[in-house]
Amino acid sequence: MDFDFTPEQTAMRKHMRDFAEREIAPKAQANDRACKFDWDIAKKIFSEGFLGCPVPEKYGGLGMDYIAYGLMTEEVNRVCSSTRTLFSVQTSLVALTIFKWGTEEQKMFYLPKLCSGDFLGCYGLTEPEAGSDAANQQTRAVKDGNDYILSGSKTWISCGTIATHALIFATVDPSLGHKGICCFVVDTKSKGFTAQAMHGKLGLRASDTASLFLDEVRVPAENMLGKVGEGFKIAMSALDNGRFSVAAGAVGLVQGCIDASTKYAMERITFGKPIGEHQQVQAMIADMVADCEAGRLLYLRAAHLKNKGVRNSRETSIAKLFCGEAANKHAHNAVQIFGGYGFSDEYPVERYFRDAKVLNIYEGTREIQRLIIGQDALGIRYANGKPAENLTALATV
Asked: Which CATH superfamily is domain 7-119 in?
C-alpha cells in the first residue's frame, strides 16, 4: 500500500480544509446552539461539487477515489459533525447506493441532481421496531398494477425533512424475512408521504433528523432499486459506505480535539506554568494523537480496498468501531483538559463531546460492529442452515 497521497488527494484535502475553516467553522457553534440546519452553508457545499466527490464524472461527480472522499469527510468533521452528516447521507448512503444498484436510466436521472444538490436524499431503513435488527422491516410494499403501495413509518432519519427523495426499505411479505425486503426511490412530495422533525437531540443539533410516515404512498415499480428481495443486501452495502464516512468523520473529531486541546494547554496557566507542561495533560494529548493516527490508517485501508472494488465489510467495521470509540474517549479527555471551561459551550470541545456519542450508535452500533468482526474471526457465517445472529454474517457477503 502506498502511503503517499496523490497530488489530487492532497489538493482535495487542502481545498476542503480551507473551505471548512472559512465557511463552516465560524458558524458551527451558533448553529448548534440554535439547532439550525444552515442552508447557506449547504448551498456553498453544493456549488463546490463536494457531494459528488467519489461519483464518476459521467454521472455529474468529481470522479475522485475513496481516499480523497475520506480525507474530505475528515476535514469537514474536524470542525462540525452536523455538516459531515449531510455528506454521509447524500453521498455514502444515497448517491453511492444508486450508483451501485441502479439501472443506467436511474443513475443518469438521479446522480447528476444528487451531486449538484438539486436533489437531496435520505436513507429510510430504521423503524421504531427495526434498528439493529434491520431485517425486521414493518413497512409494507403491496404490488398494484405497475406501482407499489407503501405504508409504514421510519425514525431517526437524517436529512428527513429536507430531502426531495428517500430510499425507502419495505417488505413485500414479512414471513419471508430479509428475503422479502425491497428498496424504492420515493419522491417526498408524493401523496401520503410526510416528514416530522425530531428535536431534543444530545448531539448533531445542527443536522436535520426526522420521522417519516408513509400512508399508502404510490410508487412506480420502475423506482425500485435492484430486484424484489434484494433490499436487505442493498441496505447492507449502503451501510458499508455509511460506516466508512462515519469512521473518517470520527477521526476528524479526534483531530478537532487535538487542535483545541493543544492550543488551550499552552495558554492555560496553573501552578505557574502552562498545563501542557504537566505530564498527565501530555499523556492525554499523546493518546489522542496515537489513536488519531491509528484511526486514520484504518479508514484509509478501507478506502484502499474500496478503490480496488473488493470486499471490505470487515475492514470498514473495524475502522468504524475503533474510530467511534476513539472519538468518544478523546472528546471526554478534551473536556477534562479544559476543566470547567470544557463544561461550557464557550469552547467547541463541549460540542465534540455530545456529537461523539452517536458515532457508537448509527450506521450500526458498536455492538453490531463487534458481532461482524467477531463472527468473521470465528468463521461463523451460518448456524444450523440459517443466517447467523442479526444477519451480520449475511451483511458481509
From this structure: Acyl-CoA dehydrogenase/oxidase, N-terminal domain (1.10.540.10)
